[in-house]
Fold non-specific serine/threonine protein kinase.
Amino acid sequence: MRSGASPRHGRNPSSGSRRSYASSELSAASSSSSAASRNPVRIAAAALRSCFSSPESMSPDDSFADDPARTPAHLTPSTRSGSSSGGSTFGSAKQKWGKGLYSGGYANSPKRGEPGGTKFTMAEIQKATKNFNPTLKIGQGGSGMVYKGQLDDGTLVAVKRAKKNVYDSHMSLEFQNEIQTLQRIEHLNLVRFHGYLEHEGEKIIVVEYVPNGNLREHLDCLHGKPLDLATRLDIAIDVAHAVTYLHMYSDHPVIHRDIKSSNILLTDNLRAKVADFGFAKLAPTEADVTHVSTQVKGTAGYLDPEYLRTYQLTEKSDVYSFGVLLVELVSGRRPIEPKRELNERITAKWAMRKFTEGKAIETLDPNLSPSPENYLAVEKIYELTLRCLAPTRNSRPSMRRSAEILWSIRRDYREMFPLDSLSSPKSHQRNPSAKSH
């Protein structure tokens, strides 16, 4: 399995601060493990440091140390404890618990090899989906259907079956592009690729089944309880980690090109996983190449205006889309709301205007309480959002820097509450006085 922290082929690992594995400001956050165990602020700092440090500098106990409730399933207490001997090293520990936040998290998955290592037969697909039983259909798009399935080893999967009447050269290219991209990547916050089928007109992709719907559905309260602001911050950080991995730590940098709420799937414990790589594009690796010239693809409301104007795609195009997603998380609104008044139809522009007027709290999702704590968090989130939505790519932060800032916001937000109040069921309940805005 590839190491998520190793330099990409053809890249000088020391070239440029945005490709470095640990910034000076993060290394300053280091503290002794004994002090961190007593001080919750230092716990958060240690977790932040582990997130962006090289594997050589990480301890198995660092990752997610500030939040046991959101520790990945494969980092159980028994596997995260490491060796009891004083001579334990990262090299021995990683066999037990994976290889860090920006690498694959499936080292212990039973009966699964490298991501996308299986080329399925039609008989296997039909058995897994009970011959594409309509009761197992879990999604539908312009290009095909998605079914829930179960492999022979018990693994639950999502089976994406393309429509046969859209098999032109364009759709075939997107199918191959998604397979090639998925085979290159593996991360806890990306849907796992299991395999594919291309045979006699059938084009099928098999990926990890994520059981709790997508983020847009949760913002629309289609799954019952609305998400509280702490959970929305956690989701934003999960997405930022996933996209940072794509931009910096995969074998070849990848631009997703379609970051949006309906492509963010949620697990039962509300961890986010980025899905749908049909529009993904490999980013340039040559030092003197700044962009990829390509036709515009993506979703209206999330598209980078500079990319729309110049046809020049960069990693900062994902950053712009992420800025739109942050507004969506705060406001609960969709990026484009055609039924609203003219000056509110483009949600990001409306929210940033309110923010610059000092009225950010007026954009808060009515399902969230307009408390002082939420107000401060929204102000900080919008400070980052305004930078992500800058009209030119050079004015936007990297995804990694965005993740760092969100970590800091979440840390400060949590310090305002007892830990149990953030996980209390009451914090997920609808505000009884909430009205649609």
Remarks:
- The first strand starts at residue 118 and ends at 119.
- Residues 229-249 form the longest helix (21 residues).
- Residues 309 and 380 are 30 Å apart (CA to CA).
- The chain has a mean pLDDT of 76.
